[in-house]
Amino acid sequence: MIPKWLIAENVEGGRNFVLHMEAPRLVFEAFDTDYGHELKWLDDGSELDWDCPPEIKAATLARAAREAGDAYLEYNRKLAEENDVEVKGRDIDLIIRLANECAEAMGGWE
Predict the structure, then answer these.
(1) In the beta sheet, which residues pair with residue 27?
(2) N or C terminus: fewer CB in 10 A for the chain?
(3) What pLDDT does residue 7 have?
(4) What's the total number of domains in the chain?
(5) Quick check: helix, strand or coil at residue 74?
(6) What residues of the chain score a pLDDT lower than 50?
(7) Rounded to 5 degrees, what angle do the CA atoms 68, 77, 82 make?
(8) Range of the domain at 68
(9) Residue 90: predicted pLDDT
């Protein structure tokens, strides 16, 4: 069984991705910032062609974005523990901003 979340790095290195493997399949790119980690949803338009109201799409995408942030943070915490390195704390404002950006892309919260 494939896990719900996968963390991936491109072959050349330097770019990290968080993949949501359940429906809908979503890809987020992870960035390290001065405040911690930030995720950006990479929209190719193919997976979100659902037959449901825009507010349902927005809510689903926002929830997935929050879960992606949590998965990436947990992954980095485990890496830090294994390598005895300090991890930057969670910045909830970045996660909220990502959720809002995703909701806007899907037509807003309402």
Answers:
(1) 19
(2) N
(3) 92
(4) 1
(5) helix
(6) 89-90
(7) 135
(8) 5-105
(9) 47
From CA 26, how far away is CA 68, in angstroms rounded?
A: 9
Question: Largest alpha-carbon pair distance within the chain?
Answer: 47
Burial of 46 (0-12, 13-18, 19+ CB in 10 A): exposed
Residue reference for tokens 């979100």: 48
**Residue 93, in any domain of the structure:** yes
Query: Would the pTM of this model clear 0.85, i.e. be above it?
Result: no
Amino acid residing at 57: K
Contact (CB, 8 A) for 15 and 29:
yes
Residue 13 backbone class (left: φ over 0; alpha: ψ -120 to 50; beta: rest) = left
Residue 42, phi then psi, degrees to nearest 5: -100, 105
Per-residue model confidence as pLDDT tens digits over 78-101: 887 887 765 554 455 556 666 667
**DSSP code per residue over 33-46:** ETTEEEEEE---SS
Q: Which amino acid is at 48?
A: L
pLDDT of residue 45: 59
110 within domain boundaries: no
